[in-house]
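Example with several molecule types.
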Amino acid sequence: MALAGPSRLQAQESPYIVTYDHYLEEPGNLEVEYFSTLGTQRGGHDFHAGWLELEYGATAWWTTELYLDGQSTFHDSTVFTGFRWENRFRLLQREHFINPVLYIEYEQISEADKIVKEVEGHDVEADHAVPNAEARRGHNHELELKLLLSKNFKGWNVAVNPLATKPLLPSGPWEFGYAVGASRPLALKASAQKCNFCRENFSAGVEMYGDLGDTISPGLHETSHYLAPAAAWNLPSGWTFRVSPGFGLNDNSHRLLMRWGVSREFTGFGETVSKLFRGRQ
Amino acid sequence: MKAVFLSLGALLLGAVLALAQADGSKARNAADSRFDYAELAKAPEKARSRRNPLAGEETAVAGGKKLFEQHCAACHGLNGEGGKKAPSLLVPEVQDATPGALFWVLTNGVVRRGMPVWSKLPEAQRWQMVSYLETLKTSPPSAGTAAK
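Resulting structure tokens for the full complex:
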């Protein structure tokens, strides 16, 4: 079976946790990822939010992804907070000076969601101080659009992601945010031997993300912003580990969002599923 | 409740559409391969004439082999003999291509045909893969896996 076979088509994963570069999942591959955020909370209890991502490369120009979110607030409770369905479409066939990818996401999450995967509008730390029992009563259906712009130059990747979110139910104004990142592998040439600790398996970078208000009240007032160094370790076996401490840059931000994640890529998932439904030919 | 059903329906539709794309893994025929090889000829003259800065470095070939096995072998076969999803790399169209043309296709992919862009790998690693690809012309493929 391809999933268990020796051959692998592996991505070289970037260290970003919030920012996206323009690279999509390889066609037919499934990547299963788990991410965790430990957040400090003023005026409330610290929390641990986690999310599971199932990312599938439908084609070389389309990646689709399902997120399942949840969180535990210390001295409060653990709750499932909803799901997101994300799609990324590569707009240009070849590499260009800057490479755009269109990101479209539908979210159905409760107001208890604390993964802080993106911040938009006037999302601030105080929003997360509400007790779970109260916060989970509010549900949001949102459409989120991002333009993922990214470029590789001399081993560096630079990515810029402006985003706009439209609350559908209940309806609300368009909300805006951003994420930017820069990263680089520790070595640009591959060593001759297979190894877990080769420098080219490690990459490091920094991300910055925050919100930019909404159509009613645009600007930086009542917004939160974070700066987060990030590092990734890509193992030849297909596993990737990431770690990223995020530091709030103003009084509206959490002081610390400590993130880590683990992911595993499965080659030929689509083909295997196709065979299951068609039988052997 | 209606919203939940709508959402689940949308997700199911997405999953079906996405998995339907796996149908692209069906066996390639000769016409498919010709179309893929034609991509090499589309490399601009400037790109085609680029020289491999790592040419002649043995460590480049060894590193390129490792990269090929990690990133390419799942589709092109462990020896580059081709597979259901990607064409052979042992044919004259590939082996007679200039290093610059190979590098260009690696960098840009053939997105419409399912080959991802590999510019995510640093430039030096792409040249290492070109170095390895060029050694395939002198290495016989494994028995029973030669290109059709």
